[in-house]
Amino acid sequence: MQKSKRTIIPLLLIALILAVIFYLTLRNPSSPAEPLKAVPLNALAVIQVNDFNALFEQTAGNSRLWEALKELPGFGKTDRQFRFLDSLYRSVPMVKDILDRPPSYISAHLTGKDRISILHVIQLPDRYNGKSIGSLVSSLAGTGARMTDRDYEGIVLHGVEPAGAAVEPFTWAVYRDILM
Fold first, then answer.
1. pLDDT in tens, 115-170
2. In what order do the strands lie in the sheet with 155-161?
3. Phi-psi bin for 153: left (phi > 0), alpha (psi -120 to 50), beta?
4. Would you call 151 helix, strand, or coil by DSSP?
5. Nearest to 98, CA basis, from 66, 48, 133, 72
6. For the residues of 13-51, what is the DSSP string, one character each?
7. Closest listed residue to residue 94, CA positions, set 48, 131, 39, 43
8. How far is 62 from 5, CA to CA, in rounded Å?
9. Which residue among 47, 58, 89, 166 sits deepest, i.e. has the most Cβ atoms within 10 Å of its Cβ?
10. pLDDT tier at 25, thresholds 50, 70, 90
């Protein structure tokens, strides 16, 4: 009996140590997702943005190409989104921090007859998450805004319908530190 206790206790300790080592080596923390992987494959076009400030300046300046593109379906809305993002970039420090982290992607998608939707995909800095983005959106949307949430394949899509007509309704989500 004494001999069996001496062999069982070390075997249990060895099994416990092996279980802990096995757990620590197999449980790798998930790496942050790449923003480009969040862009759907059916995109009409994908633009990598390394400098939002330069993008704002190029589209707001005297670019005849951009002026011509704004007349096409979808580009007028994109121009309004750029103007809105530019105003946020210049006046809200958190937005500037988020947009200054390259690279990010802008993709265009055909979502109906003569309708093009734009998707912005941005890797969030470490200090921001879905909750902080939700707080930012709520504060920017104002008190009269209608906020909705819906689940799409395990990802919560947040809808915002601002009370004023100055900003169009939009949807956003954060998944694995990627803001879409």
1. 777 788 888 888 888 888 888 888 877 777 788 888 888 888 888 887 766 667 77
2. 146-152, 155-161, 170-172
3. left
4. strand
5. 133
6. HHHHHHHHHHHHHH-PPPPPPPGGGGS-TT-SEEEEES-
7. 131
8. 86
9. 89
10. low
